[in-house]
Write a structure and sequence with these properties.
CATH topology: Rossmann fold
Number of helices: 9
Number of domains: 1
CATH class: Alpha Beta
CATH architecture: 3-Layer(aba) Sandwich
Strand order of the largest sheet: 3-2-1-4-5-6-10-12
Radius of gyration: 19 Å
Order of helices and strands: EHEEEHEHEEHEEHHEHEHHE
Strand content: 15-25%
Largest sheet: 8 strands, parallel
Distance between the termini: 25 Å
Oligomer: single chain
Helix content: 25-40%
Length: about 270
């Protein structure tokens, strides 16, 4: 590939898997971050702190930047928005530069719209029509904190509470999503905003039963509204994370009614 590929968020759930796919396909990439990891043969590292402004530099080749990094913390100026601004400014003198941003689907319930979702939506507006914004409806992986919790609950064989009025979701296999991301025709040609769907739509209870062998109990939405209020009174990063994840679950977009462009993958 004649383009140089740069990747932020390389240590996250998607980034870790994406690196493996690039390595498997022997596609050279440069990792952007604050701490250099162990590098594969196809990788380089470039120090970049998204929280700080960098002077523009010139790399001399056509560039693709895959932006995965986010900072899930309770403060107004974090990596989701201001960090993306810094990233765009840094690469502004590169001609041409193409950005691929991994965002989050947005529901239509303002009361349940999480800070994370709101900031992702605002960040999308920083990109041009020539860039690519991908919104995976729901990513399933064997790894990750959420998956570990659900696997633990599976062992306990206890049902878990879920919101009564939750929309259908379309689980995506993480490996399939990363394979899609590394296809040259998608990296170079696909533009606009797309909602990525798996092969089948499932309700959240069906998803829990299908992937985790977990039963669920539907609880009234006011219970979760009250729970988010209680969690707000506890000043902790962990409780904030849980509260925002609950709000995100209650505000899943209705995949049957969405007007976003869709891409179906296996």
């Amino acid at each position: 590939m004649k383009n140089d590929i740069y990747l932020t968020g390389f240590s996250g759930q998607i980034g870790t898997k994406l690196r493996k796919v690039f390595f498997k396909k022997n596609i050279g990439i440069t990792l952007l971050g604050r701490k250099e990891p162990f590098l594969n043969q196809n990788e380089k590292f470039f120090f970049f702190d998204l929280s700080k402004k960098f002077n523009p530099d010139f790399f001399g080749k056509e560039i693709i930047v895959i932006h995965l990094a986010h900072d899930f913390k309770q403060h107004k100026s974090n990596v989701n928005f201001s960090g993306t601004e810094n990233l765009l400014t840094f690469f502004s003198n590169q001609s041409p530069t193409r950005f691929i941003f991994i965002s989050t689907p947005h529901g239509d319930n303002p009361k349940m719209n999480s800070i994370y979702q709101s900031e992702k939506k605002a960040t999308e507006n920083l990109f041009s029509t020539n860039d690519l914004i991908l919104m995976p409806s729901f990513i399933y992986s064997e790894k990750g904190k959420t998956n570990s919790i659900l696997k633990f609950l599976e062992k306990l064989r206890v049902p878990i509470l879920i919101p009564k009025q939750v929309n259908d979701i379309a689980p995506i296999n993480l490996s399939s999503f990363c394979e899609f991301l590394t296809k040259e025709e998608n990296l170079l040609n696909l533009k606009g905003r797309y909602l990525i769907l798996g092969k089948r739509n499932l309700s959240f209870p069906a998803f829990l039963k299908d992937f985790y062998n977990l039963n669920s109990l539907k609880a009234p939405n006011f219970f979760f509204l009250l729970l988010t209020k209680v969690l707000s009174l506890i000043p902790s990063h962990h409780t904030f994370y849980i509260k925002e994840r609950i709000k995100g679950l209650m505000n899943l977009p209705d995949l049957k009614k969405t007007k976003e462009k869709k891409i179906l993958i296996s």
